[in-house]
Design a protein that fits this description.
single chain, alpha/beta, 9-stranded mixed beta sheet, 11 helices
Amino acid sequence: MALWVACVLAPTAAIGQDAPVVPSMSHPIVIAHRGASGFRPGNTLAAYDRAISYGTDFIELDLVLTKDNVFVARHENEVSQTTDVAQHPEFAVRKTTKIVDGESHTGWFTEDFTLAELKTLRVKERLPQLRPRNTRYDGQFDVPTLAEIIALVKQRSNELHRTIGIYAELKHSSYFASIGLPMEAKLAAEFKAAGWDKPHDPVFIQSFEVNNLKELHKLTGLRLIQLLEAKGGPADHAQPSYAAMTNAAGLREIATYAWGIAPNKALIQDGERMPTALVIDAHAAGLRVHPWTFRLENTFLPKSFRIGDDPAGRGHLDLEIRRFMDLGVDGFITDDPGVAVRERNQMMKR
């Protein structure tokens, strides 16, 4: 166990690079973002299984609904970037334009497909320019359901004799409710059927919206996480902005319905700038902090942690992990859980 040194600062103070190490509220966890999506196309059973093999604590997944009301894991409900749907002539007439969370999107949407139809599609790498190695797996995997993911997690937990958790993000809740597919009660019921509805169960539910988390707070005892972006505000307009949610009063309000926050890592430290006091303020409100997204590629790293000039080149994610552990985070949402697990374990031995 690490020897953590408390850092006492005013609530709005910034933390200098030479400041003492800030304590985490709990043992930092590694959350595999859409599985090991740095090594397999994300939100596939292969990516989740790969992450589990690296020793991750939780696998993170994005949940949307099909036409026949089944939860599936996709980055968005528009699937042209993550599947081969454009190569299916039988579905050409379903290409359309929709307004989702106030933005216009053109493509093919999960809510226009039954599960059986979605299962005929094959997944592809979402970031082929940055992850050309992953394109070798294009066409090999289908779109998994939440039920299939739960089954995988339980199977691998039994095989490995350790608990592997699920960290589920509800995507576009208010949009799905507007088309007659509300998500909250259905998700709580599906996890309860799997035996999970208590705070100690290995499940987190996260969202960028607010009202869906407040509704889930009434429906389940599972731990809830408020996602926070660096700009803008919740799509359900429950708060005027994410900035208003990250001040001391906003964090105390979040703590009335959520167990923690998952902020864009820039809200804690934006590149080479001085770190903020968000972690300290969140901890003061009783909230754990799980920032996102930690990635190996240079394009996602601060300049001082990059190796070479190639945006797709692999840099020093290990150093970024160490920096954020010193800033007191309680977990990492990462595309590269192998690096995060190794660095977390080494840091905890200090």
